[in-house]
Specification:
Number of helices: 7
CATH class of the largest domain: Alpha Beta
CATH topology of the largest domain: Rossmann fold
Shape: globular
Mean pLDDT: 92
Number of domains: 2
Largest sheet: 9 strands, mixed
Strand content: 25-35%
Radius of gyration: 20 Å
Length: 360
């Protein structure tokens, strides 16, 4: 095992992606070579690409070419070679991984349950993305739900934090929550958490016409309409919105329709790449970008790591049970197939019922 494969993406033309084979770096003292077993490819990864420069997502796994980037993914890996006494070949991990076959990490802050990658280039980024879970002592690990963890867990954490933010603000006096890209995994999770933690808030999903039936059948929303039917919603109800789609036209329609009854507008992702430009001259409140790592750090500082883990685990277990069968894991094997699946996801052509699990 002397070579690795990575998918390099043109930062200025996201549809341009190619598989690049290179020699594995020499392993230094204290370093560990991970062989990536599998990772999920979701709309969340498209957000990483779209906001790669702004949010520095390209910086986590440098490609060696300033014009090309390697997307971060969430998934499982195993130790392939070790220069660290605390890590044996074969140990399995879960965490933030590149769209590639291997990753060299420099473990620090090591415990039975995990460690942080202390590579110098990662110091300026949020430490939450540098944490890796050691599966042998990870209470969140279940061997029967590894695909679900990769597909939903990172997105679920974001949704959990959004609901917590709104609930702590008493929903800004609103009675309804409008979510774009309602068939996406993050929106599904937010609707589920809101149903459990804030049952008095009406949950409204906006999605493409072709996904309306699927989204309604989830049972997570009180009302689901297509993007073109925003004007059918009750504009007299005090409402907050969460835009996962990054579609300026849809966002403008929401603001225009609810106007002064829109109490808060949150921007979370950008799954509709072709219309990600910001809307101009919006009615109602100025949209505010939600950044999950900051929200997570603030909540952990308030209730402690154990309190946070317990609170999220309670909602996560219910969500996994209810979402079972709604999304089917689909295996994508090999660099060429992974590249093609990425392009398909970028173009918005992956049905919400498909959960893409990738392996090199």
């Amino acid at each position: 095992m002397t070579q690795q494969t990575q998918i390099h993406i043109d930062k200025n033309n996201l549809a341009q992606a190619e598989a690049v084979v290179s020699d594995l770096p020499e392993l230094g003292a204290g370093e560990v070579l991970l062989e990536i077993e599998s990772f999920a490819l979701t709309a969340n990864n498209i957000t990483y690409a779209v906001m790669g420069e702004q949010m520095k997502y390209w910086n986590f796994f440098p490609s060696g070419d300033d014009g090309k980037g390697i997307l971060p993914m969430w998934g499982h890996a195993k130790v392939a070679a070790s220069g660290h006494d605390n890590f044996a070949v074969g140990e399995r991990l879960y965490g933030y991984l590149p769209m590639g076959s291997h990753l060299v990490v420099q473990p620090g802050k090591i415990s039975d349950g995990g460690f942080m990658d202390m590579a110098p280039h990662r110091h300026e980024m949020s430490p939450l993305y540098s944490q890796y879970r050691r599966l042998a002592a990870d209470p969140a690990h279940h061997p029967d739900f590894e695909d679900e963890r990769s597909l939903f867990s990172p997105l679920f954490a974001t949704s959990f934090l959004i609901e917590d933010m709104f609930r702590r603000a008493e929903w800004h006096g609103a009675d309804a929550l409008v979510m774009t890209s309602a068939s996406s995994k993050t929106a599904m999770a937010l609707a589920h958490v809101a149903r459990a933690s804030s049952p008095g808030i009406k949950r409204i999903g906006l999605t493409s016409a072709g996904n309306v039936e699927f989204t309604r059948n989830l049972g997570f929303y009180d009302e689901v309409v297509a993007y073109g039917a925003v004007d059918t919603l009750d504009a007299d109800v005090r409402t907050v919105s969460v835009d996962f789609a990054g579609n300026g036209e849809v966002l403008a329609a929401i603001h225009s329709h609810f106007d002064s009854n829109l109490a808060f507008s949150s921007l979370v992702g950008a799954t509709h790449v072709d219309a990600r430009g910001g809307a101009q001259g919006l009615a109602g409140p100025a949209p505010i970008l939600f950044f999950a790592p900051t929200a997570m750090q603030e909540l952990i500082a308030e209730i402690g790591p154990a309190g946070f883990a317990e609170a999220m685990a309670g909602r996560w277990n219910g969500f996994v049970k209810d979402v079972a069968g709604q999304v089917t894991a689909e295996q994508i094997d090999g660099a060429g197939a992974i590249r093609d699946a990425y392009r398909e996801m970028l173009a918005g052509k992956v049905a919400p019922t498909r959960g893409l699990m990738c392996s090199f």
